[in-house]
Amino acid sequence: MSGSLIGTGARTRLGLVLALALVAACGRFDAQTPGSLDNMTAQQIYQLGEVEVETGDPADAAFYFGEIERLYPYSEYAQRALIMQAYAYHRDRDYPNSRAAAQRFIDFYPAEDDTAYAQYLLALSYYDQIDDVGRDQGLTFQALQSLRTVIEQYPESEYARASILKFDLAFDHLAAKEMEVGRYYLKRANYAAAISRFRVVVEQFQTTTQTPEALHRLVESYLALGLDAEAQTAGAILGANYPSTTWYQDSYALLTGRGLSVEARGDNWLASIYRQVVRGEFL
């Protein structure tokens, strides 16, 4: 974020002390009573929000920042309060409201320095909910789209690198979901359905950490179906790209245990990938 917001000289200790003094002076004052903030300046309300977001309740902070937008929509604090409201909601894990506030900032202030941070917060509102592989992957797709926006529209911002790292993790998350479903089918000997999932990983998520296991599971599945050429080719790709992994060692043992060599054979979809990835023969 820019110098006007979190972690900068603009947020001075004096401002925090004044805000704390204001709270103490108010005694039993309930800021959320209708009209209770009407006689305060935008700066005073903003300072109350700063105190809450740092040391108190982020939900209360979001309320204060929202009141600035309501009472002083054209003040210099309104813009700062809106991005801070998005941040406070995110601290409170109120992701829908964080996203809404961040989107309003993007819509109202598209050319400001903090717009990159607003877009990053919007992406985080999706990303921070995708840690469970078993959840609906719609959030992951939305996180990827929002992170891509940060990367492409704000490549020079301090949030671009963090977005790239999170994009890679979210992409790996999608591949992990495909693997989870594929393993489910494999355990139930539904080899055709398992192969379709592992194929998605190899073709669409080949840069993720899930690819070595996907190739090994293809070896297992194809051997179970008696499709030796496909199994051998999957093993060949695995050996060429991930020779030091336990997945290749397991695939090698499976193939050679059946008297099969680890080599690309036939004219199947895996053979096409082998020609492109291993031999560099792009059609």
Helix/strand layout:
Elements: H1 13-26, H2 42-55, H3 58-71, H4 76-91, H5 95-108, H6 115-127, H7 138-153, H8 159-187, H9 191-204, H10 211-225, H11 228-241, H12 246-257, H13 269-278
Signal peptide: 1-31
Main location: membrane
Keywords: Cell outer membrane, Membrane, Signal
Task: Explain how this protein is built.
69% of the residues lie in helices and 0% in strands. The chain is an all-alpha fold and 283 residues long. It has a domain at 1-106: Serine Threonine Protein Phosphatase 5, Tetratricopeptide repeat, CATH 1.25.40. Helix 8 runs antiparallel to helix 9 (191-204) and helix 11 runs antiparallel to helix 12 (246-257). The protein starts with 12 loop residues before the first helix and ends in a 5-residue tail after the last helix. Residues 1-31 form the signal peptide. One of its GO terms (cellular component) is cell outer membrane. Residues 39-234 form the Outer membrane lipoprotein BamD-like domain. Part of the Bam complex. InterPro entries: BamD, BamD-like, TPR-like_helical_dom_sf.
